[in-house]
Amino acid sequence: MTTQPPSAPSLRGAVDLSALRTPQPAADPAVPAGAPASNAPGAPHGAEGGSWVILDADPSLLQQLVQLSAQVPVLFHLHVPGDEVSEALSTQFAEAVDAQAGRLVMARLDVAAEPQVLAAFGLGAGPAVVAVVAGQPVPLVNQEVPAETLDRLLGELFEVARQNGVAGQVPAVAPARAAGGDAAPAAPTVPARHRPAHDALAAGDLPGAVAAWQAALDESPADDVARQGLAAAQLMLRTQDADAAAVRTAAAEAPDDVAAQTAVADLDVLGGHVEDAFARLVRFVAAHPGEDRDAARAHLVELYTVVGGDDPRVQASRRKLAAALF
């Protein structure tokens, strides 16, 4: 275990979470889609209040958290309850994460109760804090460090993330923490109309999240947070069962097939390769007139919404798209 992340932008290795997937329970017809459960990651920038630390996260959220690492670095605190070092790490990192106000997220996982989580990260014991950037692990620390060291580590982590195309910001994913570090349930984390979407994501109900974001947008058509949330949930839904190798092979074999090209662009955005996704679809728009051009342009605009209109990569791609169209 190192005390700092690698300084090079190239990340190696992968977090194998396949063994941690849990089957989704059958839908209860008495419970409508998007019924409240708990807050979860995956929503767009703009929510107010709350915390970016998920205390006592359920392992069933791991896949969603790894997906979220395409937008912001996600820290996993592999926690051993009652261990003095682990408790210190929890407090230190929770404060540091919340101070960043959405530039990264942390999930605390009880590895005493869920030892398989350690195996997923290639570790034999906890506690530890590991970051994941664009789906790839970046080991951080296994003990409390001085404040200036933590600041340096986070600075290096943000640089690694930036060089890998991960430089977003997300809203609070949990209730605000009390002074002692526990959640304060009374503190609202998101506007009321957004809560069903967050809760559906927490339950692993992507169709429910899509429906809830759509309902929020219908209620308030000027709600940019709901618009971004809807686009992100739709992206997650249409890629959840994708075979990445098959999608990329199909795109390589059919460069003129708009569906094949938009499918691989979706995977690129999820994987943090935002500029590659945008460039692919701009090239397609430039080379294909007619309905296929319109379909590719519309899909690209939706991906702009997922990434965020104020992102410089979106602004640069919009200029290139305008040139391709006119």
UniProtKB/TrEMBL annotation:
Biased region (Low complexity) positions are 23-46
- Any matching Pfam family: TPR_20
Positions of region (Disordered)? 1-46
Output this protein's name.
Answer: Putative thioredoxin
Native species of this protein?
A: Micrococcus flavus
User: What lineage does UniProt assign to this protein's organism?
Assistant: Bacteria, Bacillati, Actinomycetota, Actinomycetes, Micrococcales
